[in-house]
Structures are given as structure tokens and as C-alpha cells.
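Title: Prediction job returns without error message
Component: structure pipeline
Severity: low
Priority: P3
Assignee: unassigned

Description:
Job completed but the reporter wants confirmation the result is attached to the right record. Sequence as submitted:
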Amino acid sequence: MDTLIGSLAGKVWNHLNDNGATGFKQIKKVIFENESAGMESEKLGMALGWLLKEGKLSVIESGTGKGYRVTFELKK
């Protein structure tokens, strides 16, 4: 499982490096576009947690209620 999450973390990092700040749903769509293994949100959450723990991501929160959004970007 560590290998899978590490691989996903690398894909997330590459996406953010190439495209800049991106929301959770968009990252999920891009990273899992060719997979149907299930549990995508959980796996993506673990990959994002990995990058956050390493201090590589910034989290941008905006809105409230149904308009609440979380966006991730690489730390500068």
C-alpha cells in the first residue's frame, strides 16, 4: 500500500507542478482517469496527506457551506 500511495503522491506532485493550484475533485479526475479500482477519494486523501506531511503542499480553503472549496498547490 505504501508503494501505491507514494506513486499517487508523485502523480499529484507532477500534476500540481505542471498545472498549478488545483481542487480535490479535479486532481481526483486527472489522477484516476483510467482507473476503476474504487476508493479513489481515500487513496487520494492518503497521497495528499503524504505530501502535506513532507511540507510540499499548501492548502487554500475558500467559501462556506455548499460553496466550500479546498485547493492544493505546491509550496514555493
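Comment from assignee: result matches the submitted record. The beta strands are 22-23, 57-62, 69-74.
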